[in-house]
Design a protein that fits this description.
about 280 residues; alpha/beta; UDP N-Acetylglucosamine Acyltransferase, domain 1; 10-stranded mixed sheet; 9-stranded mixed sheet; 30 strands; elongated; disordered N terminus
Length: about 280
Amino acid sequence: MKPARSATDSGGSRRGSGTESGIHPAAFVDPGAELGADVTIGPNTLIGPDVVIGEGTTVGANCLIEGWTEIGRGNRIFHCVVIGAEPQDLKYGGEKAYVRIGDRNTIREFATVHRATGEEHETVVGDDNFIMAYAHIAHNCTVGSHTVLSNGVNMAGHVTIEDHAAVSGLSVIHQFVRIGAYSYTGGGSRVAMDIVPYIKVAGNPPVVNGLNTVGLQRNGFSAESIALLKKAYRLLFRSELNVAQAVERIKGDLPPTDEIKYLIDFIESSERGIRL
């Protein structure tokens, strides 16, 4: 990558040159920023000095990207997005902390992604995510890849959302919660406990209402794998066993496929407890 070119207008403001990298003449790009080839920056967008943006990424109008922020290739960032701003955390004291965003993400209007709290800590977003308007990814959160965060999803700090999970609009997620891979959280949910992989939940508090069968089929899970996960689901959520007893039954009764092992590992490593 090469440093973005800059020019000074008659008012003394730093501006992107609008040359090779597609910087609009009304954009403000610090000369310390690094932009890859074919990056497009819209009007009235401000790019800070420690920002790195990978090739082919498009940033719309009126955005703010600042702090120690690294954005990968081929992302589409729509207007009025804020990335890398100080966290909404009283513990933050100006320390060097990061936002790291992967490739081919779509980040829609007015979404916010805040830098982490803690020296050298990071807020991470993976690849191929669809982050809709007004979604908020708070400090120290980790979002995997191929997730969907619908309009107005609000994440507190230290939340983890794993690969291929979908969270519907206006859901709020308590700090330190984990949302498992291939799960589906319905709109308007208030999530205060971990959501295990592969299931559907909705409500306040969320109610578990089945395996996410359609999502699993769309993502290429075999009929055999889905059948095993249904058996595990019934032991966890539709039997009279407690969680520990259900896990022991799953270990004893079901073959240790990758999906079953991941499910067990998720439950056994849960710190907030799982939503039953």
